[in-house]
Amino acid sequence: MSVVFGSARIDEHGKIKGGAAGDQTGREVSTQAYYTSAKGWVGLRAYNSTVANKLAEAMLEACNNNNIGYDQNQRTGVITALLKYGSLKAIAVNTEADCSSLVRACVIQATGIDPGDFTTATEKATLLRTGLFKEVKITKADDCQTGDVLVTKTKGHTVIVTSAPAPLLGRKATVTASVLHVRRGPAKTYAHVRYLHKGDLVTVYDEVSGWGRIGTNEWVSLKYLK
């Protein structure tokens, strides 16, 4: 499974303001494959996995509802419509959102809590204040989990991860490499401890930057676990 984002992106004219209400192209609010941002991503991850899944579901509902389009001038229309119809899927009138107001709408639907209005410049602080999220490091697709909210480090764009491979944390995994180094820490620079071999089973207790802890001071690269 690849990592997929959902977001409010741009209007039917390729502009941020002035388009007609609703999604005129089917791409104003839509999903797209993971991509890096020149501004860098900040990740906000729900403490509760049920909330995370509901965030992803809410964003997918918005992406699949062509009544929701993009326009910064009418960005709060999606909030009004959500409160009226009860879900992003059920919105039955043409309305508009921008990337941050759509994330706000997804948070409302997933949690019943309105964090208040925010832009991408204030999103991180606003969502952390709810107590629902923690900040996580996102530098590549493998860092993402379903339901993560990503926002650029400076004013720009925000998305929700609608699908990502399930994390190995707390689960049994199989070694896929012929020979796999076990190291004392989560990087190649740490000392070698022992070897694992293809087909060996391990349990991943922690994950850090693409490495998994399989025992006390024992780490392996997650690239070679399945």
List keywords for this structure.
30% strand; 3-stranded antiparallel sheet; alpha+beta; 226 residues; 4 helices
Describe the protein's topology.
Layout: E1 4-8, E2 29-33, E3 41-46, H1 49-63, E4 68-70, H2 77-85, E5 95-97, H3 99-111, H4 123-129, E6 133-138, E7 149-152, E8 158-163, E9 172-174, E10 179-183, E11 192-197, E12 201-203, E13 206-208, E14 211-215, E15 218-221
Parallel strand pairs: 4-5
Antiparallel strand pairs: 1-2, 1-8, 3-6, 3-7, 7-8, 9-12, 10-11, 13-14, 14-15
Summarize the structure.
By secondary structure, this protein is an alpha+beta fold. The protein has helices at residues 49-63, 77-85, 99-111, 123-129; strands spanning 4-8, 29-33, 41-46, 68-70, 95-97, 133-138, 149-152, 158-163, 172-174, 179-183, 192-197, 201-203, 206-208, 211-215, 218-221.
